[in-house]
Amino acid sequence: METVSKALSHGGVQGVYRHESAATRCPMTFAVYLPPQAADGPVPVLWYLSGLTCTHANVMDKGEYRRAAARHGVAFVAPDTSPRGPGVPDDPDDWKFGCGAGFYLDATEAPYAEHYRMRSYVADELPALVGANFPVDLSRQGILGHSMGGHGALTLALTYPERYRSCSAFAPIVQPSTAGWSAPAFERYLGADRAAWRAHDATALIEDGHRFPEFLVDQGTADSFLDDGLRPHLLKEACARAGIGLTLNLREGYDHSYFFISTFMDDHVAWAAERLRG
Amino acid sequence: METVSKALSHGGVQGVYRHESAATRCPMTFAVYLPPQAADGPVPVLWYLSGLTCTHANVMDKGEYRRAAARHGVAFVAPDTSPRGPGVPDDPDDWKFGCGAGFYLDATEAPYAEHYRMRSYVADELPALVGANFPVDLSRQGILGHSMGGHGALTLALTYPERYRSCSAFAPIVQPSTAGWSAPAFERYLGADRAAWRAHDATALIEDGHRFPEFLVDQGTADSFLDDGLRPHLLKEACARAGIGLTLNLREGYDHSYFFISTFMDDHVAWAAERLRG
Predict the structure, then answer these.
(1) Is A202 within 8 Å of A154 (Cβ atoms)?
(2) Nearest partner of B32 among B53, B54, B59, B52, judged by Cα
(3) How far apart are CA A58 and CA A51, in angstroms?
(4) Span A2-276 CATH architecture
(5) E strand or H helix that includes residue A186
(6) Helix residue ranges per DSSP H, B109-244
């Protein structure tokens, strides 16, 4: 693991690191914020999954999470959203597929199956790497994300409920297998058989019996993707049927951007921190 | 004036606007954050001047000022750092001169004098434009900035003490006429006669009798430009000799980046807000 940069911020250290990933078979870059409390021993860790087109840098630059992470003593890790680089198949004309659009799944279709293994990367490889190199307590992990990363957070929490003590999302894609901006990617990554898609769809996972104690979701009402791609009511209905707790905050006038995310980041970090305590 | 974008954030509105500037004779882009209190009537306005290479966007994305501006009910305006565009003379190989490096002065030398008039733009034209188009109270203006923008804030406050009620800076260039990264630009903008440079140099202005009630300065001790370009002790000595109040916070281990600025932004907005009250 190589250190790309490190800077003091809000009393802790914001670093960027790079390593050769076994899961994605390419170099991967990620950001880790260690709060000041990490100097005294392992701290809980919060995984933040970003949306389409993002890298580790978007939330690091615009997410305004460091103050809350420092206050609550939580590490905050932001991976990239896909494999990248020479040899990684891409579709540069489609921002909803390929580089920047890994959808936090393990692709099974050629030629994507070789590198597009973001589920294994985010759920297994990166926690092991971060656990070995930073003072974090892997028995206290939380996960959150935005848009495609909200989809990632929800599906990972539902798939591995024993690994995460908290899960929240900003404007998540709650049913990617039926949304116009994600279903085509699912077909290319996972093949035409929609049964295989259910393992990567939050509402389908809930229908199929997966459970997580509770979710926090913030959604802007002026989000241009609201009705077409996001559709929080589908998650609300699925959670209600399954008896899963859902705090769904519809935020009047807010859009899909980091201007929205940064406004409510404090709430999400505080909500996670409460569930990650001792 | 044209609206480029608008988004709700921290309860207020973050907008980006563009207009044809009479001062710089080119289109200029700037960012305005209006706090929620602006819905009820004019609010004080804080001008933030950015450092070398920046546009309006750097502090808008990374400055983490919106929460504090919303709490204190202060508008926050970030102009660009220079004229830009076809016809604006530039030196693309030098990040310390030309586009992105206007140094908040009115150039007197050809070919720069035609467009490089950032002092007139920031002190006169932009306040008039913002005052006419947004609910701000121009009798309550404060100014702050970073690095080259810290130089801009200090020199404007010392030149027009009647216009600004507060002035603060992050890692300012306090004596640009003798710093290696600014003196060459001064020579090209203002000519070889160094007497003309004194009007754009904070320590020289103080020596020449200009006064401002008090300054707040934060400076990271791990700032790679500290000893060469910034030299806060020169401001400290000048203020001490002149009886100007200076709160100089040396921040152990912090660098020159927005990771540093965002950490102490709250303090600067609160400090300004206290001096901008009713």
Answers:
(1) yes
(2) B59
(3) 9
(4) 3-Layer(aba) Sandwich (3.40)
(5) helix A183-190
(6) 118-120, 126-133, 148-159, 183-190, 202-207, 232-242
d(C-alpha A40, C-alpha A57), whole Å: 27
CA-based end-to-end distance of chain B: 29
Query: Which residue type is seen at B23?
Result: A
Rounded CA gap, A217 and A232, in Å? 9
Interface contacts (A, B; CB < 8 Å): 59
* B278 pLDDT above the threshold of 90: no
Alpha-carbon gap, residue A164 to B191, rounded angstroms: 64
Q: Is B259 on the interface with A (CB under 8 A)?
A: yes
Is the CB of A10 less than 8 angstroms away from the CB of B262?
yes
For B187-238, how does the pLDDT look when each residue is reduced to its tens digit (9 = 90+)?
999 999 999 999 999 999 999 999 999 999 999 999 999 998 999 999 999 9
ipTM of the complex: 0.95
A61, with CB counted inside 10 A (0-12, 13-18, 19+), is middle
Considering A147, A166, A177, A182, which one is annotated as catalytic?
A: A147
A9 is catalytic: no
> Is B222 near chain A, with CB under 8 Å?
yes
Hey, where are the domains in chain A? 2-276
Nearest CA in chain A to B264: A10
